[in-house]
């Protein structure tokens, strides 16, 4: 019986091609064959000056009518992207509301701050060091680089790059105030678990450039979608940590450059990705998605008592196997690191490639 499985790319060294595309046609400002840095602009276009609306009262945890006493900028003032427009002292530090754009502090309505952008240009940055190999019409470019590639489970829809700082020495470490007590400003933090919304907001306030977590709560994921702080969840929502192969790659890359691509289209099979650039090896090939399995293949168990455990395929059954509930399903025997062997249905497997 031939079966096909979900697969996840977790590659320590591979050739990577990544499209960088504008939402509409514009101007390409680099040439094919050019080497680019992560912060380099590769394309730009004009955009309508829609207001940036910030839910300031909600972010600060105050009533809308109280927001005035926490404002740090006067109405009508010009602000730069990254400027603090409102803040509130708290037990664990200061909660801040940051302007996402250069613009005019236009108004405050029902606890929300409206910023009118002063620039009509949208600039698209490379976000990863690499070489321009082709154009995507007049909308963007295809970049080629090499390094580690990790496909993740979920992303907040935002992108970032910076220096990786791994906090915690095991894949199940939970983010606490102690992990944020050092110099984390401008760093991309990676940790096993994020279960406290206050810790997410604390990372925002400290100027963390991005978060990579193995597991997070649904509440934190929802908050991250309306936050400028990019977040990627490598494994699952509400789980128990990070898959060991991913954690080990991040350990090896600690202190190096990391790029987060949190935007994805599930309907098209596109997933959030993490890129850890490093010099290419001779003859390096691009990672390919593998749908069929064979004995010795590394797999991850997706649910049940052994959810998140990684093992290897020991035996592939050619006939349907009975479960305790009476159903018969296709599946395999998986050998875990502790030597335990268990039957896992095909639908509960993630093939690591």
Describe this structure in words.
The structure is a single chain. The chain has helices at residues 56-60, 197-205, 218-225, 244-252; strands spanning 6-8, 10-21, 27-28, 35-36, 41-46, 52-54, 78-79, 84-90, 93-98, 103-109, 112-117, 121-125, 130-136, 140-151, 154-155, 159-166, 187-194, 210-216, 231-237, 257-261, 273-277, 298-301, 310-316, 321-322, 328-329, 331-336, 341-345, 349-352. It is mainly beta and 353 residues long. It has 3 domains: 7-16 and 145-277, Glucose Oxidase, domain 1, CATH 3.50.30.10; 52-119, OB fold (Dihydrolipoamide Acetyltransferase, E2P) (Beta Barrel); 298-352, SH3 type barrels, CATH 2.30.30. The strands form 6 sheets. Strands 2, 4, 13, 14, 15, 16, 17, 18, 19, 20 and 21 form an 11-stranded mixed β-sheet that branches. The protein has a 6-stranded mixed β-sheet with strand order 1-28-22-23-26-27, with no helix packed on it. A 4-stranded antiparallel β-sheet has the order 6-11-10-7. The longest helix is centred in the middle third of the chain and has 9 residues, at 197-205.
């Amino acid at each position: 019986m031939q079966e096909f499985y979900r697969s996840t790319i977790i590659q320590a060294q591979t050739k990577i091609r990544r499209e960088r595309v504008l939402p509409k046609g514009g101007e390409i400002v680099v040439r094919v064959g050019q080497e680019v840095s992560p912060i380099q602009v590769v394309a730009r276009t004009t955009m309508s000056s829609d207001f940036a609306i910030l839910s300031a009262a909600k972010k600060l945890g105050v009533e809308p009518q109280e927001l005035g006493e926490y404002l740090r900028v006067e109405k009508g003032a010009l602000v730069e992207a990254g400027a603090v427009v409102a803040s509130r002292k708290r037990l664990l530090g200061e909660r801040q509301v940051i302007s996402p754009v250069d613009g005019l502090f236009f108004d405050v309505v029902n606890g929300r701050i409206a910023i009118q952008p002063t620039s009509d240009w949208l600039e698209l940055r490379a976000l990863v060091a690499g070489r321009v190999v082709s154009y995507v019409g007049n909308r963007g470019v295809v970049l080629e680089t090499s390094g580690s590639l990790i496909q993740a489970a979920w992303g907040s829809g935002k992108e970032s790059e910076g220096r990786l700082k791994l906090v915690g020495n095991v894949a199940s470490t939970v983010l606490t105030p102690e992990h944020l007590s050092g110099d984390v400003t401008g760093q991309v933090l990676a940790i096993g678990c994020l279960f406290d919304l206050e810790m997410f907001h604390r990372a925002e306030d400290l100027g963390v450039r991005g978060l990579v977590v193995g597991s997070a709560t649904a509440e934190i994921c929802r908050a991250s979608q309306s936050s400028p702080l990019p977040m990627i969840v490598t494994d699952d929502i509400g789980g128990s940590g990070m898959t060991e192969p991913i954690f080990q790659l991040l350990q090896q890359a600690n202190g190096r450059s990391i790029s987060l691509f949190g935007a994805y289209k599930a309907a098209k099979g596109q997933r959030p990705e993490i890129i850890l650039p490093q010099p290419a090896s001779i003859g390096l090939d691009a990672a390919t998605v593998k749908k069929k399995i064979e004995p010795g293949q590394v797999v991850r168990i997706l649910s049940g008592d052994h959810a998140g455990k990684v093992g290897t395929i020991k035996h592939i059954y050619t006939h349907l196997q009975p479960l305790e509930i009476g159903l018969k399903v296709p599946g395999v025997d998986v050998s875990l690191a502790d030597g335990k062997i268990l039957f896992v249905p095909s639908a509960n497997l993630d093939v690591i490639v």
